[in-house]
Amino acid sequence: MMSSHVNIEIPTIDDVLEARERIKGHVKMTPVLTSSSIDEMTGASIFFKCENFQRVGAFKFRGACNAVFSLSEEEAKNGVATHSSGNHAQALALAARERGIKAYIVMPSTAPKVKVEGVRGYGGEIIFCEPTLEARERGLAEVIERTAAHFIHPYDDPRVIAGQATAALELVERIRDLDIVMAPVGGGGLLSGTSISVRTRSPGTAVYAAEPAGADDAYRSLKEGVLLPSVEPRTIADGLLTSLSALTFGIISSNVDEILRVDEENIILAMRHIWERMKVIVEPSAAVPLGAVLQHGNIFKGKRVGIILSGGNVDLTALPW
Amino acid sequence: MMSSHVNIEIPTIDDVLEARERIKGHVKMTPVLTSSSIDEMTGASIFFKCENFQRVGAFKFRGACNAVFSLSEEEAKNGVATHSSGNHAQALALAARERGIKAYIVMPSTAPKVKVEGVRGYGGEIIFCEPTLEARERGLAEVIERTAAHFIHPYDDPRVIAGQATAALELVERIRDLDIVMAPVGGGGLLSGTSISVRTRSPGTAVYAAEPAGADDAYRSLKEGVLLPSVEPRTIADGLLTSLSALTFGIISSNVDEILRVDEENIILAMRHIWERMKVIVEPSAAVPLGAVLQHGNIFKGKRVGIILSGGNVDLTALPW
After folding, report:
1. Angle subtended at Cα B224 by Cα B222 and Cα B225, rounded to the nearest 5 degrees
2. Nearest C-alpha of chain B: how many angstroms from A210?
3. Considering only Cβ atoms within 10 Å of each terminal Cβ, which end of chain A, N or C, has fewer?
4. CB atoms B280 and A279 under 8 Å
5. Angle at A309 between CA B171 and CA A124, to 5 degrees
């Protein structure tokens, strides 16, 4: 191990089962919803695992919670830190509050007010920085130097991945005989965890990923067999802009059957169908898998498909229609 | 009985249990959701029965389905008819399709396009009329004269009430020891059914209703002890504009502990909280009970409260914020 906050071991299903026990009582057992009109439209039977109903409105709370409660007393005593302008920021702040430790969140000064208030509402301490990756990393290094807080990366961390994996674990235990389970892919934490749970607990089920065509670094990386960065990603699915890490690339390379690219119009159409037909609020990133079903319909016809609806944090005053 | 389509008997819990068996396989067993942030905000423990996830997006499908499947072959053979511009229209069209009979829906020519398309999508035959109550009733009489279809009223019908009652039945069987169950009140079908299920299956639980202050005919009727009509109702909760009937007034008078009036600003605030905190789409009418909790907070502090989220059919391009 390079340092106390880096651990490059690939999580196993035992880690996932331990994570489930560890975070029980903190996370919600989210429902699985179906929609006869979406099934009619797609010719598939789709089971939506509603992580948008998870605490903080996204699956991210599972991973953050597992990481925070995995820490020893010694590791936890100075709190935790991360840089994020997204759902991981709120998730880590809430997980830290539940453990009774501090959370330091480095956020770009341009972060939406609603996200800033979300982190503050959970008692997180915000350190603003310029909106560049370099400034965020420098800001984080300074915070850790000053506070000795424990860094929790949003996805490049086996404890986080094991936590995210518990969503798919619940799904395949509840809904049997799925042909495919599909998750969106950004940094790859959710997809890595999903693939570990599905491969081991439902070995007959294929694991698919859905990725915006405008941010297709995971697709290109798997095709080339080397980790390629996300270059100038452009998509409405703002949770999927990040690149895979070495850890998530390795897990996904071994476990994932296919990555499907989805155009913007199908992401927006899928989002609207979920809102209108299911009465469920999802953010654009969460709609990408249904977008893949709409765009690549022949793959899914007649199949039983599990989809992780990853989150529902969206600005209700700026909808894409 | 006055005629084949009027039946003024008050439904019993046995009718409700029969309704549940009859509509099983057609209706969804909807989930009950909670929100720690709404609980924190209100000081209550609130359990939301999500009938907005019901087929056609509203509890109305339960009642329509029970009525349609209660018909004898003889009664059903010429189809069913109603006048409605709301959720009952779509509910009846879908229930009729599932039984394989025709549905004739009299709708005002001003009905929103999305509702018209909804009814058509379920195979209902639409007869347009002028947007007055008189024209609707005349239109309906003409349709029945022409087709000999069986009239299914949206709420003044014990079969419909028994169907609506199954939602609260599921709620009190799943969540024990509720102090209060609350439903919105318009024509009173949902509230009547709710009160029958709660009174008999959870006798220690109080039954409350929430009504827009701008359409408070049920509140005034109960206070005066006589059935008063809804006069020029004005509220964003467009599902709650109708008046009680003699049947629903009778049931509600016997069974309901309290009707709470809710101001428009609290309806809109409650609707926004449900969207933002729970990631769940509700129409304004469905938000009225949480609006009552916000407006009459002291009644609910420390209580376990079940709320029926009645529906989620809302125009996503015209939100009230």
Report:
1. 60
2. 22
3. N
4. yes
5. 90
User: CB pairs below 8 Å between A and B: how many?
Assistant: 43
Best mutation target among B279, B285, B321 (most A Cβ atoms within 10 Å) is B279
Contacts of A189 (CB under 8 A, 6+ apart): A63, A154, A155, A156, A157, A160, A161, A164, A248
Tell me the pLDDT tens digit for each residue of A119-167.
999 999 999 999 888 999 999 999 999 999 999 999 999 999 999 999 9
Looking at beta carbons, which residues of chain B come within 8 Å of A318?
Answer: none
**Whether pLDDT at A187 is above 50:** yes
Phi then psi for residue B309, to 5 deg, are -80, 105
Contacts of B321 in chain A (CB under 8 A): 316-317
Do residue A319 and residue B316 have CB atoms under 8 angstroms apart?
A: yes
Task: Decide whether A13-58+157-309 matches A61-151 in CATH topology.
Answer: yes
List the single residue in B with minimal CA-CA distance to A54. Answer: B278
Q: Hey, where are the domains in chain A?
A: 13-58+157-309, 61-151
The structure's pTM equals 0.93
Find out whether A309 and A270 touch, Cβ atoms under 8 Å: no
Rounded to 5 degrees, what angle do the CA atoms B298, B304, B308 make? 100
> How far apart, in whole angstroms, are the C-alpha atoms of residue B232 and residue B137?
19
Q: What is the pLDDT of residues B140-195, one digit of tens each?
A: 999 999 999 999 999 999 999 999 999 999 999 999 999 999 999 999 999 999 99
Distance separating alpha carbons of residues B214 and B230, to the nearest angstrom: 10
Pick the CATH number of A13-58+157-309 from 1.20.1250.20, 3.40.50.2000, 3.40.50.1100, 3.30.43.10: 3.40.50.1100
| Interface predicted TM-score of the whole assembly (ipTM), two decimals | 0.90
Q: Assess A30–B contact: CB distance below 8 Å, yes or no.
A: no
Q: Is B52 on the interface with A (CB under 8 A)?
A: yes
Determine what percent of chain A is predicted with pLDDT higher than 90: 88
State in words which class domain A61-151 has.
Answer: alpha beta
